[in-house]
Amino acid sequence: APELAKTAYRLKKITNLPILFGEIVHTIIESVIKNYQATGYIPNEATLVEHLRNELNRAFIDSTRNKEAWYERPKHYKMLHEIYYNGKLEEEDIQKIKDRISVCIHNFLNSKSFKDLTAKKEMQVLQSEEFRTMELLGVKVYVVIDFLYKDVKEDKWIIVDWKTGKETLEDRYQLALYALYLKNQFQVPLEKIEIRNEYLLTGNCQEYRLTETDLKHVVERMKLSLLEMGKYVVDEEINEPVDLAYFAKTEHTNRCNRCNYKELCEMND
After folding, report:
1. What is the spatial distance between Cα 102 and Cα 89, in angstroms, rounded to a whole number?
2. How far is the C-alpha of 79 from the C-alpha of 7, rounded, in Å?
3. Own/partner pairs, 142-147, CB within 8 angstroms, 24+ separation
4. What whole-number distance in Å separates Cα of residue 58 and Cα of residue 60?
5. Cα separation of 182 and 112, whole Å?
6. Which of 6, 163, 172, 267 is the most buried (most CB within 10 A)?
7. With 80 as the cut, is the pLDDT of residue 256 above it?
């Protein structure tokens, strides 16, 4: 069991290329914003593009040359899902990421939210990429908000989520949960909260104002999700799962290609 737990932890640290790309972009954005707040300096686009490329190259080197080091210290090295399971990155996937590098950096620097921060003096930044928690239906829920600031002049709070992928219907619901957190934890009236998706692939900015009905819908979705997860737990206090036999094999086997835990699945076949 201890060795199985170690293996599961290592596999958890595997990341596929698009997700890793998004994580690095988010880290760069957080760094740029914090640095701007402290110094007023904004790195130029070429510098940020180069940094993003270097981080991706480092992940590739870790995955191909430092596998043993990652195996021993997975927290300190990167491992790409595609290389771990397939031994290589497909040229098509590499080109897709290459095409996104300059586009995402350019669109971030020219995004409405970043322009707000740099062009207006009445902005109060509250948090960026920090874990926050709230209790929902008796469960501690972790909330990670990319960027949250208050427009003092307009007296409104803006919740921003930077997206490096395509637009989906779920994006609004994710932000609605963040709005619920802001309303409950800071007693901010809902009419003073604006949620915003910044899509870095297209440069598109989607803004929403929510209603109490929207928040009730989010709570209901969370409730259903918690009830479903609860079916697979014997003891919530120690997070003990039911027997493996209760976990049905997925019918959507195409998803297995993106699963980090294929190795464990094969071990138990």
Report:
1. 20
2. 14
3. 143/177, 143/178, 143/181, 145/178, 145/181, 146/26, 146/29, 146/30, 147/29, 147/33, 147/113
4. 5
5. 21
6. 163
7. yes
Phi and psi at residue 130, to the nearest 5°: -115, 145
Higher pLDDT, 183 or 139: 183
- Report yes or no: 80 and 15 within 8 Å, Cβ to Cβ: yes
The pTM assigned to this predicted structure is 0.90
pLDDT of residue 171: 83
Distance from C-alpha of 269 to C-alpha of 266, rounded to nearest angstrom: 5
Q: Find all residues with CB under 8 Å of 69, minimum gap 6, and list them.
A: 62, 76, 77
Strand 156-163 relative to strand 193-199, pairing: parallel
Strands (E), 200-254: 204-208, 233-235, 240-241
Q: Contact, 232 vs 242, CB < 8 A?
A: yes
Q: CA triplet 148, 117, 115: central angle to 5 degrees?
A: 115
Token duo for residue 244: 């493996």
> From CA 244, how far away is CA 262, in angstroms rounded?
15
203 within 8 A of 107, measured Cβ to Cβ: yes
Give the pLDDT confidence of 156-179 residue by residue, as tens digits.
999 999 999 988 888 888 888 899
125-156 core/surface letters (b: 16 or more CB in 10 A; e: else):
eeebbeeeebebeeeeeebebbbbbbbeeeeb
